[in-house]
Each structure stands twice: as structure tokens, then as C-alpha cells.
Amino acid sequence: MTFLVFFAIVFVVYSSINYYLFSRLNMVFPGTSRIALYVKIIFWFLVVSYFAGRFLERIWLSKITMGITIIGSYWLAAMLYLLIAVLLIDLTRLIGYVIPFLSSGVSSHLNDVKKYLFWGLIVATGILMTYGYFNARRPLIRDLELNIPKQAGNRKELNIVMGSDIHLGTMFTKKRLQKIVNQINSLEPDIILLAGDIIDEDLKPVIRKDLGSELKMLKAKSGVFAVTGNHEYIGGVNPAVSYLESHGIQLLRDTAVLIENSFYLIGREDRSHRGFFGKQRKALPDIMKGLNKDLPLILMDHQPFKLEESVENGIDVHLAGHTHNGQIWPLNYIIDAVYEIGWGYRNKSGTHVYVSSGLGTWGPPVRIGTRPEIIKMKLNFNSE
Predict the structure, then answer these.
(1) pLDDT tens string 234-267
(2) Which SS3 state, helix, strand or coil, does residue 322 take?
(3) What is the pTM of this model?
(4) If 0-12 CB within 10 Å is exposed, 13-18 middle and 19+ buried, where does residue 169 land?
(5) Which of 78, 114, 324, 352 holds its CA 20 to 30 A away from the CA of 96?
């Protein structure tokens, strides 16, 4: 029921935006001339392509259905920027009615002006999508050094490499994943932590492209660990977990492990657990029952909600993802309004919190106003 309500809201909003854009397109290309007909057919193909592609992938996975999905994914981002542009144009028109400022020459050639604006917006949006495509494929390495005032066995330090939100699926090529794996391995991590949404909903494209063979190449002295994200649940959490574990990644699902008698790594099930299985995930105090809290406590929880729970339970390092830092400007402002920490580092009453912007993309395969990132985090133990 929750999913149906969510889908209904998304459908209404998506349909309303595209109807609005189409109404303005109709003003530029009225009637049924050949060019007007071609433009309108292309427009409606773009509108339905993402949802049609995702539906067809489940019935018939092929290069054709994946291509339709990719085209539709770009439209999701293009639609946002076209909406902003058209709203600004309509606002300018409204002001022009109240305070006439357009010259008579512009008014007399209004049809030509509309077409110039249309083609100008198409070119500008195309340039923006191209920039966003390449920007999404250039992960930054962010360095962070933290002091943990605890002893960790014989360890004086721990080099963590952390990533999140890879979203392996239709949009992800094997070559791109290979590049990310090589970047992570080049940092010589003691441990690799992946904070959820490794798989983007449907497992079929991941299997078809054999992306798991690249995940197997991740190397860390103390292992590769991950937690589930909401997208693992959307696509079927148990098959996703089985696939990841069969390719060298240990999933922590409301469990804690003691690593080398030095520190605890705690992994929480994603909050989506309740929506899909009808019961709450295990409470953090229950997961931590019996742990020696004199040792460092590192927690992974995909969605950065209720950070105070980590503070109350003495967590030293809290790692999360999910937000993508908005992925596409200006959505980062919404993220900042929804989450206490939408992206980046903060010391919250002694608990070190880092929310990653992620490595991949969801929906549009572009990033505008944010960069993908790999976190290189050095923990110094027994430090003041």
C-alpha cells in the first residue's frame, strides 16, 4: 500500500510536469505540421521511455530495453532543467504583461523568438547533460583523519576506504566498475566498507554483465563489508545479498563482528526492512548487547536518520550514504532540509558522522552540482 501511494504521487507529479512542458511545446509548434508532429512524437517517447524501459527489462532484458531505459533516465534530468527554464520564461512573460518591456520588434516576431528559445534550451540542456555524464564518472578521493580516544588491541591506526550507492545495474558498465575497484585498491585499505545500495534494484543486468567478477577484485587486509540499502530491498534483498556474498562481500544485517580483537564493526539492516517484511529492524542496543564498548565501535547504516541513536549508544564512527548529496542541483537543498546531515563530515557529540555522496547515480546517469566520492578515512587510536 505504501508503495502504491508513493507511485501514485510520483505519477501525478511526473504527469503534471510533462503536461505543463507539452502545453508550452504546443505554443512553439502549434497545429499538425510535419515538424510539429515529429517534435511531439519525440517528446512523448522521452516521457514514457524510462518507465517503459524498466517494465520491459523485467520481461525481456536486451540492449533495446536497456537503451530505452537509458534514454528515459536522461530525460528525468533534462525534464527538471527544462521545467526550471520554462517557469522562468513564463515568469518573464507574466512580468511583461504587467510592465511592458519587450520592444515592438520582438513582439512582432514572437513566433521566431519562441523557436529560438526552444532550440536554445535544447542545446543548453544537451550540453548540461553531457557535462553531468562525465562529472558522474570522475570520483574524488576525500581524505579524512580522525582521532578515537580508545585502545584497539595492538592497532594504533586503521585505514578505511568507504564508498556507498554504487547502483550497479543497467547504467553501469564493467569498465567503469573496474576503474572504481582499481581506485579503491590503490589506496591500500585495511578494510573496505560499502554503505548500501550497491545494486540498483534489478539484479538481472548485474548478472548479465558479470559485474560481480569486478567486485571480487576488491582487496583489503581485514576484508570487504557492506550493509543493505533501500535499493537492495526494491529489487529483492535476499537474492541481492546472496549475489554480493558469493562475490567476496560480507553483508552485516543487524549484526556486529569483532575484527582482529581490535574493533567492532556494526551493520544495520536498511530501514526499508519494515516496509517489505512488516516488522522493524533490530534495535541498535539489541545489536550491541554484550559488546565491549571500551573497544572502538564503527557503524554502517545506509540512511542517515536518527543519528542521535548512535550518540546515545556510544558509537565512535557512523557511516552512511543514500542522499547522493542531491545528485542534481538544486535537489541538494531538499536533501539539506530533510536530513540533519545531508552530506559530509560532522562531529556529533563525540560521534564522528560521515554521509557519503556516493559513487554511482540513480535515475539520471548524471551529476550536476555534486561529485561522486571515495572516502579514505584514517582512524588514530588511543589519541587525545
Answers:
(1) 889 999 999 999 999 999 999 999 999 999 999 9
(2) coil
(3) 0.91
(4) buried
(5) 78
